[in-house]
Design a protein that fits this description.
By secondary structure, this protein is an alpha+beta fold. About 30% of the residues lie in helices and about 40% in strands. A hairpin with a 7-residue loop joins strand 6 and strand 7 (about 80-90).
Length: about 140
């Protein structure tokens, strides 16, 4: 197993359509983990969610999160990000990122429709500022 450089883990996070697994903490202390589609904005990870979703409520109350993204094929790799969440309701910023995420995961032909759907009233742009990154490649290498 080899530690990834910052450039390597950013490239890994942007390859293909891997989903992130976002962990937040419910009000009663129970963990809550959900898959997310995301993009990178410099060092920050961004995604959208509804303002009434469990994950939005959890992050509003406690902005500390953890996200794990992994490769499902040998020799296996993963990136785990610990960080803090902040929110934006700016319509232009939300549309920009929702469209970019839509293009990545749904294809460029559906990006605009996906962006409009996910930049509607009641949606939030979530920005994750990393506080710690653990990134390893070739997990099964000898």
């Amino acid at each position: 197993m080899t530690e990834m450089t910052k450039e390597e883990y950013k490239e890994f996070l942007l390859q293909g359509t891997k989903t992130g697994k976002l962990a937040t903490v419910r009000e009663d202390g129970r963990p809550h983990v959900v898959p997310i589609w995301y993009e990178l904005d410099g060092d920050n990870l961004v995604f959208t969610t509804g303002e009434t979703s469990v994950k939005a409520k959890n992050m509003t109350r406690d902005p500390r999160i953890s996200i794990s993204v992994d490769d499902q094929t040998p020799p296996y790799s993963f990136v785990t990000i610990e960080g803090t969440a902040s929110f934006s309701e700016d319509p232009e910023e939300l549309l920009h990122w929702a469209t970019k995420i839509g293009g990545r995961y749904m294809g460029e032909d559906k990006a605009e429709a996906f962006g409009k759907r996910n930049a509607a009233e009641g949606e939030l742009l979530v920005k994750i500022t990393p506080t710690k990154v653990i990134a390893h490649k070739d997990v099964t290498a000898w």
